[in-house]
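Example record

One chain of 444 residues, shown exactly as stored in the release files.
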Amino acid sequence: MAIENGKKVEVAEKDKMVKVMKKDMVRPSKDLGRRECPLVTFDLPYVTFYYNQKLLLYKGQNSNFDYWEEMVGKMKEALGEILVDFYPLAGRLEMDEEGVLRVVCDADNVGVEVVEAVADDVGIAELGEDESSLLLQEIVPYTGVLNLEGFRRPLLAVQLTKVRDGLAIGCAFNHAILDGHSTWHFMNSWAEICRGSSSISILPFHDRSKARNTRVKLDLPSDPSQLATSPLMREKIFRLSGSVIDKIKSDLNSSLSNGSKSFSTFQSLGVHIWRAVTRARHLNVEDYTVFTVFADCRKRLEPPMPESYFGNLIQAIFTVTATGALLENSPAFGASMVQKMIEMHDSKTIEGRNKEWEASPKLFQWKDAGINCVAVGSSPRFQVYDIDFGWGKPETVRSGRNNKFDGMVYLYQGKGGGRSIDVEISLEAQAMENLEKDKEFLME
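Predicted structure tokens for this chain:
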């Protein structure tokens, strides 16, 4: 049984293109004794999200991939070493006697699941196609698995799949214990050790109490299977070159009057996507539309947290307007709303949001994103194409199929480098078809 956008889909064993060869549990290379890591207010709302999935595709060069067993052994050995520093990923979720969630890493709860698989009839180009396919759920582990499963499953699962012309590394991270910033910190550190370094460049900062020290008791759902699932969608990557990004930004800023604050690249691209998706949905002028950003709070807190803070340190922030107002005014109208929303999210606002949530905890689901929502996660600032395990940089980096809902957008650094950005969008089928024909969005 597989999961297709929240819906169960039968995949017969004989129809599977990926053959699992081996499954191991990789443990930290040193005995860590018992380690505990509390989940704080920034972590807890995501317990009812799904595992966050990432896929990195590496094309074989100079017969490197002929030495499959040696490569996999090297990766697993490096993983064991890196788990000493990133020990929360080796633990399990646990609820203490007061009903507060934490991660526990001890002799009974330790290890990361690593699957070795082969897909001889699958190529890197097929997996890296702009539109995602059902095949990804055979390549990336834990599709359709909720973070709540972390009480009995590993908090990180990795699948190493040998394909026809390279290697696919599929990873599933329990989103209740880390955000995108921490995900890529871990991935870069793992690659660094695999390349032969004796230590990592940036050690993770684990004291989450420095960001928030309030203990919150959660009432977890008794039947997680009843949590809402997303409707059937299409998922596609739109690759915008640096020159296109520059034009979107310069066109927007050229409309500003003297003395107005210029718009950043993110604000410019954000409103460009918001307007395009809203057009593609063919909404009525009076219909509301919401723009959401999962904002990194590391530098917004007082005192600020280090970049190496390991955990979730994000908050979802929103702005809303009528469709007519967004589309009939110039792009600067929506961009100003986005700019104001981001600037207002300071330490005082974050503190207020934390206190409000702690007074009445609510576990997030995709349906809470807002009506006609465009929600932006990840960041092109993450250096995802620098992740070199010793056989070159990835050919393609993308998300798996989890945590995708109508209007979810992931931004990635473009493979071409510079200012290029990959925009990964999930939309209902008709809206996606409309977006594909939108020359204003495509900048044609």
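Notes: The longest strand covers residues 288-296.
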